[in-house]
Amino acid sequence: MHEREPYLYLVILFIALRLMMMFTVPPNHLTLYGDYPYYYELAACSDRGLLPFLHYWSEYPPLFPFLSVAVYQLSHLFGGTYHAFVYLMGLLMLGFDTGSLLLLLRLGRQLHGEPAAARLGWVYSILFVPLVYTWWGFDATAVFFLLLALERLLAGQERPSAVATAMGTLVKLVPLLIFPLVVRTRPWRRWLAYALIVAAVVGAVALPLGAMGGPMALASFRFPLARPSWETVWALLDGNLNTGLLGPPADHFDLEKAFNPAGNPPRVPDWLRLGAFGLLYLLLFLKADLKERPRSQVAFLALTLVVFFLWSKGWSPQWQLLLFPLLLLALPLRRGILFILALSFVNLAEWPVLLSRGLNQALYLTVLLRTALFLLLLLELAGRTGRQK
Q1: Does the reported pTM lie above 0.70?
Q2: In the prediction, which pLDDT does 248 show?
């Protein structure tokens, strides 16, 4: 018990800092540069009996849109105001944030031992970006399910890991990127069983929504493919100097906005981009030596995310939250902190400092800097997953 006492103080301070910030900073200020107002307006449609996937299309997988509706309806117990919605949503995200911290500590103990795990926990607890995104977005849910899937996988519990992966996929598609790690470290019968569990859980949600929602559900599932590029080198090539923000909530009732969103078409064909990065990832996949090397397995998952970010036609600054815990676990602490701070400064400069002020031409600087950091990370992580001489 004495050995775990620093963890208790860490978790208490982690929660207290966020609660104090929540209750002393006005909700409108807390969420000024985030998406909570957007979530609130869409969730308020439920007062008219209108639900995502059924009556309007959603750019997100189904778990969070329905969770947002549930939080909004619960806020009616406290007046139904935007402030009530922010407090309830913030508490929910705090719960996921705390769960991620506990999972990071558990993974840290498994990979590095008790003293190192405590250091990782303290570093993670004072990072600024995960703190502010508690009130800017819902990516804390995706981070939690990704870390849960990883922790259960490293513990040898593949079925719980598969369920966590499925839940993460229902929040955002990125947690599904743990699957190549499963394939690389498990015999085919076991990774096939893993895939079937993920498909069954996701299908149990997606198929009924597709049947009930019809065109709106189809638009929701197809929107990621139809969406034009944003905040990446591909967006610069396409001439799309815009953020990932969509139009007003009313646009979600217009199917034309889902199937033909505004933006320039890609100059680099999707098949060429997919083929080039698919070949790169295949080489990294085959080169990886992960057997009985859990730290290299974490590095391989981080590597998979980095390749995905470089390939993706879009970038949202909150996606870096998925990468930060993996970098702390996979890299030497000093190097992990340097990468995290560099990514944090570049992405905060992009949003909210520059883009919120209409300085969209600054994307030529911030996008190129972030891409350079990802390329450095690619080399760093590839070296930690390759075959040992």
Answers
A1: yes
A2: 85
